[in-house]
Amino acid sequence: MNNFALQQHNCFGCGLKNDIGLKLHFTKKNNLIIGTCSTKHEHEGFPNILHGGIQTTILDEAMNWAFLIDGIFVFTTKIEIKFRAPVDIGQKITIEASVVELKNKIYTATGKIYLASGKLATESYGEFYLINDEKKSQILSLI
Questions:
Q1: Residue partners of 135: CB distance under 8 A and separation at least 6
Q2: pTM across the whole model
Q3: Taking the domains of the chain in order of start, what are their residue ranges?
Q4: Which of 30, 72, 76, 102 could be disulfide-bonded to 67 (CB atoms 3.0-4.6 Å)?
């Protein structure tokens, strides 16, 4: 199944059918997932600053796609965020994520948001639980 097919649903992060969603799209380059996003006023926290919860959502989505792009379906079980610099509304950000480890049923990944200037704004670490084949089939049947 290709990325476009996987995005034909209502996910707030990547779903193309969600009118208020972020509609994030990622590509794989070597072992890195890369995407971009233009920040909007609908997603601000403090005036003209991207809400921290939206940043967390973006990184959660990117880390999930680090697995999903290879057909591995996971649920997020833990996410840690470090906010290093404010993300101004109206700028294009770059998002990166990569798998750290695949061990037993717990998988780990990291993610980063970079400002248009190239400065690191936000970092994440996540732990993910592997979805079994039965649940994966159920999910795919709904798309």
A1: 73
A2: 0.88
A3: 3-141
A4: 72
Q: What tokens were used for 100?
A: 């750290």
- Contact status, residue 112 vs residue 97, Cβ threshold 8 Å: yes
DSSP symbols for the chain: --HHHHTSS--TTT-TT-TTS-----EEETTEEEEEEE--GGGBSSTTBB-HHHHHHHHHHHHHHHHHTTT--EEEEEEEEEE-S--BTT-EEEEEEEEEEEETTEEEEEEEEE-TTS-EEEEEEEEEEEPPHHHHHHHHHT-
CB 5 within 8 A of CB 16: no
Total residue length of the chain: 143
Name the CATH superfamily housing domain 3-141.
Answer: Hotdog Thioesterase (3.10.129.10)
| 33-52 pLDDT tens trace | 999 998 889 999 999 999 99
